[in-house]
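Exercise 7b. Backbone tokens:
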């Protein structure tokens, strides 16, 4: 059934894409900011300097708000597997069952339990135990991310399975799934990209507060000045280091993609015909939307694509047209004429992903990452030797640029997922064809669900997520504007007060302070 020109499969893909990208905006901030807050807390325990405590309390609040919203939006992903994508769940269940169980039972419980100890443990448990609780929660987030990325990477490069009698994968080697080279590359890339997100947040908000204090004539000698300056410097150095590491891990990931999913990477370059040596496209134009590869033209830099794909400047890189023929010869020119394929049954298969999506998201990912690194360099330069930037363009530009690494992360995720189409589980070219496992997206949607039902859930979830976005931005904006203290240097009620004397010796705090750090 078609609704507004879209069948059930298209609507289900839009629903999963929207909810996943929305959730993924929160994931890198949770991972990256969690690591930095743990570092701040560690520095306070080691040095006992009040600025590190204030930094921990302020940035910890932002971390907690994002964590709560991330959990709420992440739960929806689990339900979609059973409701809109039951055939997909049935196909991958033997592999995903163990990974998702470990993610929920081990990583998530570790994360949530110790995060609770951290929230309510201020002044109630010894400082080092309290710090250990935060590190345990942060490690839980990282481990949780690894299990999810391992599951997704199996879809990109299925290993550790054999083909069962019913054509579905049978899990035979759990270690192979966990050590999948695709997972290792994707995980390392995701973690350093998460640090870029957190670093940009520290830079943007820190510069804004420094400028605000400077224009108000406040003393650079007080604790609050040290809070924002340390935040900017920490965020700037972390962003620059993370950018360099994203380039290295991205190069590793790109070379693996050329081995495992060559059509994805050739589409990302709008490389229609095989080239030796191959050129890197700077800008392309033509009929991207209609996927007419022969009508796409590029401004290129010679030799670079060969190096990105193979590590040398001469090896040939296959084009989209050649790869389309190779895929069609192995996996079929048309979808099977079977009811499980719905409206796609019997239709020709276009193995190339939408060129406009892969090409521009790949460049948006790189461009936004580069912009974030440039802002970090500006922040470090403008705050050198105790300086405080007052440039409206520079400071407010840095504040707006907080969104750049978020866009880079979302674009990278869209590129990775859309570039795999028309497969939801891409075949592994490292094994003989008869032993390969693959699954078309067209056959993954639930057979008993209608387009109208998916439209209803899509609209409902979009509205709910929109409300949640407003709530999160309002909460974060409220705490950011309040800062760590009021204008006269005294604590602002309800935000980050001066550390009480009894907190240093682990003595219990007053009962009316118990919920001060919780939401």
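Sequence design result:
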């Amino acid at each position: 059934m078609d609704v507004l020109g879209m069948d059930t499969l298209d609507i289900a893909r839009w629903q999963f894409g929207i909810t996943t990208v929305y959730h993924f905006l929160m994931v890198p901030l949770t991972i990256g900011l969690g690591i930095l807050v743990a570092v701040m807390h560690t520095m306070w325990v080691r040095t006992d300097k009040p600025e590190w405590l204030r930094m921990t309390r302020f940035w910890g609040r932002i971390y907690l708000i994002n964590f709560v919203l991330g959990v709420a939006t992440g739960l929806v992903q689990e339900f979609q597997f059973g409701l809109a994508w039951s055939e997909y769940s049935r196909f991958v269940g033997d592999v995903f069952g163990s990974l998702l169980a470990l993610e929920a039972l081990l990583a998530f419980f570790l994360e949530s339990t110790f995060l609770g100890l951290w929230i309510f443990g201020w002044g109630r448990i010894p400082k080092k135990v309290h710090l250990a609780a935060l590190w345990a929660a942060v490690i839980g987030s990282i481990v949780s991310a690894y299990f999810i990325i391992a599951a997704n990477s199996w879809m990109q490069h299925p290993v550790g399975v054999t083909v069962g009698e019913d054509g579905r994968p049978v899990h035979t080697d759990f270690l192979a799934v966990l050590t999948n080279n695709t997972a290792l590359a994707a995980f390392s890339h995701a973690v350093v990209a998460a640090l870029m997100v957190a670093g940009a947040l520290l830079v943007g908000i820190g510069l804004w507060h420094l400028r605000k204090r400077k224009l108000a004539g406040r003393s650079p000698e007080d604790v609050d000045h040290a809070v924002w300056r340390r935040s900017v410097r920490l965020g700037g150095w972390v962003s620059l280091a993370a950018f360099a590491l994203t380039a290295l891990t991205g190069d590793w990931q790109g070379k693996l993609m050329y081995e495992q999913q060559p059509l994805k990477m050739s589409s990302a370059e709008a490389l229609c015909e095989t080239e030796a040596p191959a050129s890197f496209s700077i800008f392309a134009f033509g009929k991207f939307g209609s996927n007419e590869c022969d009508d796409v033209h590029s401004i290129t830099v010679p030799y670079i694509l060969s190096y990105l794909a193979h590590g040398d400047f001469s090896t040939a890189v296959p084009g989209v047209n050649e790869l389309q023929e190779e895929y069609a010869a192995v996996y079929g020119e048309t979808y099977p004429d079977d009811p499980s394929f719905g409206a796609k049954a019997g239709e020709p298969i276009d193995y190339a992903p939408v060129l406009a999506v892969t090409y521009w998201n790949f460049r948006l990912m790189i461009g936004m990452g580069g912009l974030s690194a440039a802002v970090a360099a500006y922040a470090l330069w403008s705050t050198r030797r105790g300086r405080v930037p007052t440039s409206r363009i520079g400071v407010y530009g840095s504040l707006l640029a907080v969104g750049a690494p978020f866009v880079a992360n979302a674009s990278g995720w869209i590129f990775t997922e859309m570039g795999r189409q028309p497969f939801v589980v891409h075949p592994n070219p490292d094994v003989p064809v008869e032993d390969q496992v693959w699954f078309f997206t067209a056959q993954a949607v639930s057979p008993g669900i209608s387009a109208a039902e998916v439209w209803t859930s899509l609209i409902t979830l979009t509205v709910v997520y929109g409300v949640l976005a407003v709530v999160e931005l309002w909460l974060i904006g409220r705490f950011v504007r309040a800062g760590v203290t009021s204008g006269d240097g005294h604590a602002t009620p309800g935000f980050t007060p001066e550390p009480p004397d009894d907190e240093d010796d682990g003595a219990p705090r007053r009962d009316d302070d118990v919920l001060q750090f919780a939401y």
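Instructor comment: Strands lie at 161-163, 169-171, 280-286, 296-301, 423-425, 439-440. The chain has a mean pLDDT of 86.
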